[in-house]
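Still learning folds. Look over my entry:

…
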Amino acid sequence: MKMQSWVIYGLIAAVFFALNTVIYKVAQQKGNFSPYYGLLMFGIGTMIVLGIFFLFKPSFEFEWKSSSLAIIAGAVWAVGMIMVAIAISQKADIARLAPIYNINTILAVLMGIIFLKEIPDASQMIRVIGGAVLIVIGAILVSI
């Protein structure tokens, strides 16, 4: 069975998100800066990468409804990232913090099922529920 391209993108994202967390913690330890300053620098890095991306893949199909929802999604993400930055500034261990905030996986699955009606078929349901349960158990184990 051929792996679908979105799975590959998801795996690449996972590697970059892991690197992001480790690099951010090292920066915070070396600079001993506030989480707010750190996130400002984080945002500048994000804007640089997105600017370069848009130079090579321009897409300016503006539409109010979807654009405003994307801005709201970015604001929601920023609040979550602020919480992670504060936890890191309070000397949280990445090995314990990451599994806790990655409970977002189970929350995203549940919200996808409830709000987006993305209900897995019967053959996928056991894998989805089993994987979600393992994530929650892992988060509990590392946080105690």
Observations:
- Residues 35 and 83 are 9 Å apart (CA to CA).
- The mean pLDDT is 88.
- Helices lie at 5-31, 35-56, 64-89, 94-101, 104-115, 122-143.
